[in-house]
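Can't paste images in this forum, so I'm doing it all in text. The chain is below; anyone willing to post the predicted structure tokens underneath?
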Amino acid sequence: MISQHIAYISAGSNLGDRRASIQKALSALRESGAVPRKMSDYFETEPVGHADQPWFLNLAAEIETLLTPQELLRCCQKIEGSLGRFRTFPNAPRTLDLDILLFESIVLDDPCLIIPHPRMAERRFVLTPLAQIAPDVVHPVLQQSIRSLLTRCADRSQVRLFQPGNPGDVRR
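Text version of the structure:
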């Protein structure tokens, strides 16, 4: 019998209509068999890694799927490409970024995919939305809850609840 899997993804955008890009991505995931069940609020987040770019809009989603981790990765990459994602350099501005954060309690380290996401515990922009929908989920390598990881996170970049129409709602 084939069973449903629970995975958590992070979605982010800092080019174009950020919110529309993320909404289109969630719809495309649904159509591909990766059904969002819970979604965090949208958060505006300061760029990390390459600071000279617009702020991001981010959210986390719990999805239910029959896809394997590798199939989900290919699905995410196809959606990114369909929404104009070009990989120019690490941490570059982008119309869409979909990252698999967790997939059940699987630990996977292959050349194309690492689960849990290798930098998720270091990134406030990932942990804040994820803690909103899955605070008690345990990171399978670090053996700490998402809430605990957020509390201990050394990243001090700004993460704020998105308020459409506020001066920070810059769409570039």
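The longest helix spans residues 18-31. The helical segments are 18-31, 69-82, 124-133, 146-152.
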